[in-house]
Amino acid sequence: NSLESNPAFEIFQSKKLEYGQRLRFSESPSIEFKQFSTKHVQEYMKNIIPEYISAFANTQGGYLFIGVDDESIILGCPKDNVDRDSLKTVTNEAISKLPVFHFCSSKDKDKVSYETRVIDVFQGGNLYGYLCVIKVEPFCCAVFSEAPISWMVDKKKGVYRLNTEEWVHMMVDVGPVSPDHLKYTPKFLWKELCSQHKRLKDLVKQQIRSFSCGLLILSRSWAVDLNLEEKQEVICDALLIAQNSPPILYTILGEQDEQGQDYCTRTAFTLKQKLVNTGGYTGRVCVMTKVLCLSSQNNNKTSGGSVSPIDYPSSYNLANIQEMQDLLQALVIVLLNFRSFLSDQLGCEILNLLTAQQYEILSKSLRKTRELFVHGLPGSGKTIIAMKIMEKIRNTFHCETDRILYICENQPLRDFIQ
Ligand SMILES: [Zn+2]
């Protein structure tokens, strides 16, 4: 530990020191001296602690001395100005307020690690005052001296100050997965599904309660998303991408259905193929399946036979956030890629991805949304949307291609669509 090989460590461990003694080291990037001869020591400490403690924690760690002047002379805080205990209390309070943000998945180091020593300073054999030393360990991620000074306006809240987490999320692309958090997405769909099906929330929560970090990606039909036929009895499919687990595809049915497992397995298999073939995913990948049923009381019991029969080795688990994000990246390509007119014209494959807005249009439930009016400039992707919607109509309503009428104004476009 470099903090213990630091010359300041010896002083940090002292029981008593002499007033006026000169330390054998001076200030450095890991040592800072402060001296307050005022009665308002505590006020001054509250002001400097956030700055120095966060600076040390964000770098290599270090020692903050309160009671040493710039010439390395121990002067202490006179005991008439401050009492022993309050030095510790002020320090603890100030440090506990420092906002931290983790980019890593470390759970054990939630706050800044530090240790405070209050050392007696004697003058001519009598207690004169105290030297307060704070030893700060380096922090794994980011420590702030205060919440960022950044504001937003909201209809309900009015003008409000962002907290550290909100601010970091706005400033940095931390990716869709954050540590210690299992997110349901898209949120609107989850809300809609929960309001339509009373038991859904509890059923899903029960299944995923042992996972603490990841994403649960909901869809009315993962099959349709993958260009397979819809199964009408399916309420929704949920794909779990979680740490320390392989991806799991849950198919949620209203009533028990013998074909449910087949549907889920086929969807999972296609997903796995596309992740590799289309998405270019290079890691080990398997997609486990599980069929859940809203009407049955105990899904763990009844669906015992419907869990994937193969137990994959743990090397198929998504080990960390990086692996989860790599898989998600492949998934984005699987879901958003499309064959373009341009690729055909040039005779070579071009990777095209739908925009988030285009995908949102496509995610609308076809059963509920019977009319869509999409307008845009030439080349903005209206034809692509139309094609994707036709694919979806075919899969959702199980109809033959020749039962879909497509009307357009130019011949090459018609030929391309055909
Ligand atoms: Zn961290």
Automatic annotation (TrEMBL):
A UniProt-annotated Pfam family: SLFN_AlbA_2
Q: Where is the Schlafen GTPase-like domain?
A: 181-318
Schlafen AlbA-2 domain location: 27-143
Q: What molecular function terms (GO) are annotated for this protein? A: endonuclease activity; hydrolase activity
Organism for this UniProt entry = Mus musculus
UniProt cofactor(s): Mg(2+)
Q: Write the record's keywords in alphabetical order, separated by commas.
A: Endonuclease, Hydrolase, Nuclease
Q: What is this protein called?
A: Schlafen family member 8 isoform 3
